[in-house]
Structure formats: structure tokens, C-alpha cells
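[job 4417] fold queue: 2 targets
>>> target A
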Amino acid sequence: MSVFWRFTLAQEQDSEKSQIILEAAARLMQRKSFKDLSMEELAQEAGVAKGTLYLYFRSKGDIYLSLLMKGVGGLAALVDEVKMTIKGSAREMIETILDTSLRLMKDSPFFGNIPILALPGSTPEEIEEGLRRDFFPKLEEVKKVLSSIFKHGIKTREFRKLDPKRLAGVFLHLLEYCFVHSLLLSDHPTDPEAEIPFVKELFFKGILA
């Protein structure tokens, strides 16, 4: 086996092992808070030795940040793809992003109890540096693409003349509302997609009668 193929195989194996660990962390965070989660419990849940965890992640905070990065990375890829492939209206692009992102979140093994967009105050202090360095810049990339879609919609008179960047921010918070409210804040957890009609009505029509 060549060096290249050994390296490729090792990367695939590393990726598989890290995914197992992240999925285990996400499951545990459905039952307890990040603060109360121990590396020993995580190792047992993932079916690996405790020392193995540190081969892939430096700390518990690193694991949490990795989960958040998976969330925002998937959203960024989706937003980019929608903008490149959908040639319809700006509203169609925004609705597609809303519909598809919630479906992906619901079906993902990672995000049962993770604040995907890292609401202020909801994340552990120990990962603040990682959020500033990695997460928020990636989120800004998402906002930038969303802003360009809203700007296009304003130009074609689909949308009112409002600040595109602020529209992007509001849209992201409504997106998180669908997920957080349906799974975390409700006494009876529901499908995040069930919130889509309400969010569309609110976002596109407002609250005035």
C-alpha cells in the first residue's frame, strides 16, 4: 500500500472515530448539561478508552466547539449551494434554506440538545476563544451570503428596503427558534419542521393585521 493510500485510510479512520465521539457527546448532552458531563462518561458512551478521547480532542470544550462547528459548517454549505443552484426568486432561496436546514438538523445525530447558533450566554466559558476564532467568523460568512440574497430580493422588489445584514441576522434567529423551541423549550417536543409555517408567516408578512 502506498504512503498516499495509507494516509488517506488513516484520515478516514480518524474521521470515523471522531464522529463516534461527537455523536456520543450529543447523546449525553440530551440527558445532562455540558458542565456536568465528564470525559469518563463520554468515553464509556462512545465505547473508547478515556485516553483515546484526547487523541482527537484536547478537552471537553473542544468537543462542544466541534459540535457547534459541524452545525454552522453544514448551514454554510447549504446556503452556498442554494445560492449557486436555485435560479428562482430570492424568496424561493430563503424558503429552501429554511425548509432544508431544519430537515438536516432534525435528522442529524449531533444536534438533539446543542444550541446550533450559539446564543449569547448559552455556551461554556472555556470555548469563548474558539467561538471568536472559528465559529463567529464562519457564521459571518453565512450572514454575508444571506445578505446578498436579501439584497437581490430588495433589488427585484420582492422585499422591502431594509438592511440586508440585519435581515440575515433576524432570519438566523428565527431559524434557531424553530429548532430550540420545538426540541428544548417545549413541554412536548415536536418536529422542528412543524414551526416552518409560523416562521414563514411571521418573516414574510409580519404581525400587523
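>>> target B
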Amino acid sequence: MKKTKNPEVAEVTEENKMAISVGKVAGALGKGLFAGLIGTAAITVSQSIEMILTDREPSTIPADAAAKVLGIQPIDDEKKPALANEVHWLYGTSWGIFRGLLGAMGVKGISATLLHFAAIYGGALTIQPSLDLAPPVKEWNMQTIITEGIHHFFYSLVAGSVYDAIDKNPAESEGAASTMS
């Protein structure tokens, strides 16, 4: 039986290998940003529940960090919580880029989730003190360390689950569907 070429499938040549690689990375970054957005929604819910339970006010540290790093200032003090919320969403969503890079390198599942968590929580433990917005971690109480760890692990778990769910190989899905019929 003679095989015929499918005109919709391009032959892989040296010339288009680079385009395939760039496309793979771009796709992974896009998926990562989406996963980061959903992860940010998850940590926002987690923090909102914790604030209700502990009677804690929302933090304005994201706005303070933006002021120090980017020189961005709210128009007035009443706008500071809104700026903090915007920075929170941008920062959390952008962490999805790291998850996307892990996926592009072939790191998947729980391994990627744990690496993502380590990077995010490590950043949380060091960025605020390095900007003089919080005391060094060694001065934090255990409840704060655990609470922040839970929030950031929840973010990583949700973002990782979303990334892995949307990063399925279409050929795998088609194969699974054809074996079910």
C-alpha cells in the first residue's frame, strides 16, 4: 500500500524546526499566563477566606512594591488598595510565565508544580524583606509562614492543574477518543 502525503502536514526541515520551537515556547507561555491568571483567582479566594477568618485587612504591600520598583504611585491614598489589587493580579498572572517555561522544557505534573511553588514562595519570602516592606522571614511568626505557604501552594496547585489540563497533546486526545468509540 502506497502512502500519500497529507498536504496539511508540513515536512519537518532544518528551516522550520526553529519555527516549531518558537511556536512551542510561545504556546507554552500563553498557556502559562492563562494558568497564572486562574492561579491568581485561586490565591485571591484563599486570601479572602483567610482575611474573613482572621479579621485581617487587605495588604497594600503590592502597591508599595510597585512604588519602590516601578515608581508607580496611586493618585491618592484612597486609590492605594485598588493599585495593590491590580499589582497583585499582574504579579500573580505573570508567575504563570515560569510555569509555561517549565512546560516548554518538558517538566510536567507534580514536579513542575513543586518547582513552581518553590520559586513563587521563595520569591514571597525574599522580595518583601529585600524591599524593606516586611521584616526578614526569620522574624515572622510560624502562623504567618504557614499561612503564606498554604496560599502560595494553593496557587501553584491550581495553576499547575490548569496548565497540565490545557497542555494535552491533541494526538493523545484523538487517540483516546478513537479508542472509546
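[job 4417] complete. Note on B: Helices lie at 14-54, 61-70, 80-104, 109-130, 142-166, 170-180.
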